[in-house]
Amino acid sequence: MKQLTVLSGKGGTGKTTITASFSALTRNAIVADCDVDAPDLHMLLHPQIIETKEFKGSKLAVIDETKCTGCGLCTEKCSFGAITENIKVDPFACEGCGVCTIACPLNAIALTEKISGHAYISKTKHGFMSHALLSPGESNSGKLVTLVRQNAKTLAEKEHAELILIDGAPGIGCPVIASVTGVDAALVVTEPTMSGIHDLERVLRLLRHFDVQPFVSINMYDINKDNTTRIENFCRKNGIDVVGKIPFNLIVTEAMVCGETVVEYSPRSEVSKEIKDIWDIVRHSLQLDRD
Amino acid sequence: MIVSVASGKGGTGKTSVAVNLALSIENVQLLDCDVEEPNAYLFLNPKTNQTRPVTVSVPFVNEKLCDHCGKCGDFCQYNALFVGSDRVLVFPELCHSCGGCLLVCPRKAIIEDKHRVGTLLLGSADDLELVYGELEVGEPMAVPIIREVKRHIKSGKNVILDSPPGTSCPVIQTISGSDFCVLVTEPTPFGLHDLKIIVQILENMEIPLGVVVNRAGIGDRKIYEYCKEKTIPILLEIPYQRRIAELYSRGIPFSLEMPEWKTKFQTLFSNVVKLVGK
């Protein structure tokens, strides 16, 4: 079983459009949406939820006001400024470390587990899907990504799937790291803008750091052809395969509005042809059987 | 006044709005809090005045004093300490710097060490002050760097915070303490879905907000219906125009080449001031 993560560094370059299209082009893959704080893949794949699990990723300090004398030792010891001067816990600032529980001389503070999201196992018309939703503003998205990947792996083993297809989050921080560790390859979707190039370079460094094979696809390549050439030259110099260039076309947005993958909505469009070609290259590189 | 620019979904135009707004008004400090992928400086070509490492406190275990009782490992909520029979392994990337291990160690065998997680950069472009941070590649936690960037907020300035995408802890760290939040979205199903999540967060945090619709004209009208229903003010619409996209791709703030936009961003800002004053 192989694992492929679709990444970008910069947001909004087309990760989800590509992941959803790949999912429609495979017949034997499990898809995992690892952008758990702003997941969008479900809007194109329409999963029917089979199983929901609570995600208890973090803890929160809770003060027993009947015991508290307001001495303020907890406020003083908290590194996150999460306990106010009138001894109230700020749930947005609390990182659940537990220092206040040992600082309190009266044992008036306890850590409680909180539900910080939900993980789902679902079925789409293309196969099984593992996804999740972090409760708004929660932390520990990396842990939830790990749970989504574990669920996908269990499903893949049960279904004898040959591929886990992972839609990653933007950035290079904890949820992204959690979505690339141990995968076989990553497809980085970039765009020919100054921001796109900057963020591509950082995400490629991240992949090298974690020893993951990168592929690069340039989305909306015709917005700025000079920058596209710059990206191609940069990749060539660093021995990275540019596996495709997708033209700008509002058909992608039209497909999204209709809740469909672009390869199903408009199979004969330039965009769809290019995505199919990219999928073929990636599939061959990962030595996946023909679907 | 502190105004943050956030979005939920990535790539909707936060940095573009933050930079063009900053260039259109006076007395500005722009803080790029997207430390995973900082982009604002690409549009401003600032002169870098200062660069400093950002470090966090992590435990250092003195093995001569340690008897491997395991209390630190049991206490740590983040699995940053593994206590073996003859050695303690510290995983600095997992540490949240709470200091709990130092407090629970009965033999005072743990002292504070420093671990570098990124860089803080202070720069300027003409009258505009720019503060931004850069997370070290491979480090997972952006929050300590955002905290460091925000430590440089100057009172009396018009402070603009460019937030990272998403709706989890780095976003909360950025927007907390803001007087107003400008949410940049695009009129598509993805844009709307992620906008709803961030609106819910801002309502919980009791931060007033308004929406900028970027790439107006593509997609559908549902964003407008949602904003109307929730009585969220639409502060500005930026139409989808090839010229704007092309200038963006070259790293040029479009209000510099299309000066009519400068006035629109000034109006946006004065409307924000009015909304905060309410």
Task: Produce a short descriptive summary.
The complex is a heterodimer of chains A (291) and B (278). Chain A is of the alpha/beta class.
Number of H- or I-type helical stretches of chain B? 11
- Helix tally of chain A equals 11
Strand order of the largest sheet of chain A: 3-6-7-2-8-1-9-10-11
Identify the biggest protein-protein contact and residues per side: A-B, 64 and 59 residues
Assign the structural class of chain A, choosing from mainly alpha, mainly beta, alpha/beta, alpha+beta, or little secondary structure: alpha/beta
Q: Return the domain count of chain B.
A: 2
- Average pLDDT metric of chain A: 96
Main beta sheet strand tally, sense and closure of chain A: 9 strands, mixed
**Gap between N and C termini of chain B:** 14 Å
CATH architecture descriptor name of the largest domain in chain A? 3-Layer(aba) Sandwich
By DSSP, the count of extended strands of chain A is 11
Spatial ordering of strands, largest sheet of chain B: 3-6-7-2-8-1-9-10-11
Instruction: Estimate percent helicity of chain B.
Output: 25-40%
% residues in beta strands of chain B: 25-35%
Write up what this structure looks like.
The complex is a heterodimer of chains A (291) and B (278). Chain A has eleven helices and eleven strands. In chain A, helix 8 (225-237) links the parallel strand 10 and strand 11. In chain A, helix 1 (15-25) crosses helix 11 and helix 5 runs parallel beside helix 6. Chain A is α/β, with parallel strands linked by helices. The relative contact order of chain A is 0.20. The relative contact order of chain B is 0.21. Chain B has helices at 14-24, 40-44, 71-75, 100-104, 143-150, 169-175, 189-205, 222-229, 242-249, 254-257, 260-277; strands spanning 2-6, 28-32, 47-61, 81-83, 88-90, 110-125, 128-135, 158-162, 180-185, 209-216, 234-239. Chain B contains eleven helices and eleven strands. At the A-B interface, helix 4, helix 6, helix 7 and helix 9 of A face helix 4, helix 6, helix 7 and helix 9 of B.
